[in-house]
Amino acid sequence: MRRSALRLNDEFELYGRKYVVLELNFPNAIIQPLTGDLTAEEMNYYHLTQDRGFKLLKKKAPVHSRNKDFLFLSRSQLYGFLDSLPESKREKVDRKYEMIQPILLFERAKTGDLRAIIRFQDKYGSEYLNGEETNIKSITQKQLIHRIANKFDVSTRTIERDLSKYRREEQYNDLGLHGLISEKLKNPYNRKDMKSIEICHPRKKEKVLCTIKTYLEEGYVSIIKEVIEHEYLTKKQASKAEIKEILEVRCARAGLPPLGYNTVYAMLNRLDLETVLRLRNGTIASDIYDPITGQFSNSEAKSSLHMVQIDHTELDIMVIDKNTLEVIGRPWLTLGIDVYSRCVWCMHLSFDSPSANKVRKAIEHGVLKKRVKDKYGTIHEWEVFGVPDIIYFDNGKEFNNREIKYLIDNTLESQVMFRPVATPRWGGTIERLFGTVNTKLIHRLAGTTKHSVEAKGDYDSEGEAIYTLEDITELLTRYITDIYHHDIHSSLPFDCPTPYLQYQRGLNIGGQNDYIDDENEEEFHISLLPTKDLAFTRLGVRLDNVYYNDIEPGKIIQINGPKYKVKFDIDDISHIYVLDPLSNVYIRVRAVNPSYDFLKGMKKRTYKMLLKISRDKTQSAGAIPNEAELLESKDKLMSRTAEMQKTNKGRRKVINLGLEQFNEKSKPGKRTFSNGDDELLRLVEALNQQLDQR
C-alpha cells in the first residue's frame, strides 16, 4: 500500500500552491514556494501534513514509456484483485515480494536514509552481510541480488525481472504487488462454458475450501466434487493415481468418457496445498505451516517508531452501556508504545477480549492520524502516527496469528518481533504504561475496581459505575495527549525528559515514518477488516444474525451465485463490504434487518447482548428479532437501570467523592502540564458537566 512521509526535496501543494521541502527539523519543516515569492518559511510538520489543503505530488512516469498493453485499474480494483487470488497464487506473489523487498529497502538506504539503513541492518544484515561487511556501503546492489538469488535458488534475471515489474506498477498505480501477479491471472480467458467446482470440507458442507475452474461437461462436476471431498481430502491419503482410477469407475457408471491422466493431475494440483496437507496429514501440515515464534537479540530502539510494543490489559473499572445504562463489565484496553520515546502509538478500547481483530484495530489507530483535537478539543494534538519498523508482541495467540503476521509483513512492510517465552521482564515498558494509566486515571474514577480486592474494600464498583465506554475512551485520549506525553518520564534522558520531546528528537534522527495518505485511509481501513466467505441470497447476506441487502446505488450483486468475500467491522455492524468478482471492487452493503439507522455505530458485542435479552423473552434462539423487539429489549434494560438508580443514591455522590479525593491529592500553586493530578481534576470536572447535561 502506498504510504507517504514528507522528505527532503519532496514537492507538494498547499491549497493549490506548489512548494518544495528544503529542510526537516522536527517538529518543524522549512519549505519554499516554487512560484511567485520564493521566500522560505518554517511550519510545524504535523500541522502541515494534517492540513486539508495539503497534497503530496507524486512523480509520474513519462507518457512515452508506457506499454500500450498495460492494464490500468483503480486502487480499489487493485486491492480487490489481490484479495480475490487463491491462497496458492497469493503465496507466489508474496514469495516474489520477499525476494525484492531487501532490494527496495537497499535502494532507499543507499540515498542516506538513516531509517532505511537501520531497517536493512536489523532485518537483512545477518542474511546478506558477511562478517567483514559492517554496513550496506560494503556491497553493491548487484552483489545483493546475487546473494538473494542463491538463497531462494532462482536466477538473478528472475529477480531483476520481478523488480522491474514491481517498479513499473508502483510508478503507474501506486501498488507494486499487482506487478508481481502473472499475466495469465490478470487477463484470464473468460469463456461461457467455464464452470466452478466448489470443494467443501468433508465434514462441514457449509465451509468452502477452494474453487476449481473447469471447461468439462456438466456431468463431471458433481463426480469430481464428490471424489475430491470424500476420497482425496481424507486421512486415507489416497494417491493421485488411485483418485484417477476412482474417477474412471464413477464416470463409467454415469456413461461419461474417462478423464485423462493429465486432466486429473492438473485438477488436483490446483487445490490449495495447505488445505490438502492439513486434511490428509495434520501433523506434517502443522510442522510446515504453523507460525514459529522468533525473536531479535540485542535489539534496541534507535529512533522514533523504530520499535513499538503492543499488549492488552483489562482495565480496573466497571463501565455502563451508553444506550441502556446497564453495567456491562470491565473493558479491555490495547495500547502500543513507542519504545524510543515512551509515547503512546495506538489505543483500542472495547469489551471484546484479546483477539486478532483487536490487534487490527489497534494497528489501524496507530498508523492513521488521530485528529483528536478536532474530535475532543484537546489542548495538544496526538502527533504520534505512521508505520513502525518493528512491532513487538508477547506470545499470545492473538499476536502469533497468520493474518496478523501477513498484515505486518506485507501490508505494512514492517517486522514482527516476539517476546521470548516465560520472560515477562521483556514486556516491562508496556506493563509500566498500563500501571501508569490505571494509577493516574482509572483508579480515581467512579466505578473503579482498584488493583486488588484488598484495595477495593467494600466499595461497590458496579453500583457506582457511571462512565460509558465512550467516556473512558475520551478520558484516556485526553490523559495521553495532554498529560502523559508532556509529563516527565524517569527513564528518559535529562535533556529530553518528556515522551513528546524525546519523540521529536527521534524524528530528527530517523525522520518521519511513512503513513497513509488521507485519500487512501478508507481503503486501508477495508484492507485490515477480517474476511468471511458468505452467500448472497434474495434476503441478502446473513452475518451474526443481521441481514445486509441495501446495496450502493448503481451496484449489482448476483443473487444465489458463488460465495463472496465479505469484510466486516466489529466496531460498527451497520454495514459490510462485499467483493464483486467482476469489478474486483468492494461494494458497501448496509443492514436491512435490523435497519442500518438502528445499528449505526453499534458494536458487535452490544448487539449480541440485546439479542440475548430478546431471545430469553421470546424463546426463539434461532430467529433474528425485529426492531420492535430490540427496542423493547432496550426499554427493559433502561427500566431496570431506572429501578437501580432509585435505590442507588450514590450516582452523583460518587462523583463528589471522587472530586474530594482529587482535591486532597492536588497541590496548590500554578497548574502546569507536568502536574497530572490537577489536569485530571480538570478533565473529570468537564466530564461531570457532560453527565449532568444528559
Overview of the structural elements:
The chain is α+β, with helices and mostly antiparallel strands and 694 residues long. It has 5 domains: 3-59; 65-186, no CATH class; 195-289, no CATH class; 307-513, Nucleotidyltransferase, domain 5, CATH 3.30.420; 529-617 and 624-645, no CATH class. The protein is 43% helix and 16% strand. The strands form 6 sheets. A 6-stranded antiparallel sheet has the order 17-20-21-22-19-18. It has a 5-stranded antiparallel sheet with strand order 5-4-3-2-6. Strands 13-12-9-14-15 form a 5-stranded mixed sheet, sandwiched between helices. A hairpin with a 2-residue loop joins strand 3 (17-25) and strand 4. Helix 9 (240-253) packs across helix 10 (261-269) and helix 25 (650-665) runs antiparallel to helix 26 (676-693). The longest helix has 24 residues, at 87-110. It is globular. The model is unreliable at 61-72, 291-299, 422-426 and 644-676 (pLDDT under 50).
CATH architecture classification of the largest domain: 2-Layer Sandwich
CATH topology of the largest domain: Nucleotidyltransferase, domain 5
Pick out the low-confidence regions. Answer: 61-72, 291-299, 422-426, 644-676
The count of DSSP E runs of length 2 or more, i.e. the number of strands, is 22
> What is the arithmetic mean of pLDDT?
78
- Distance separating the two termini: 43 Å
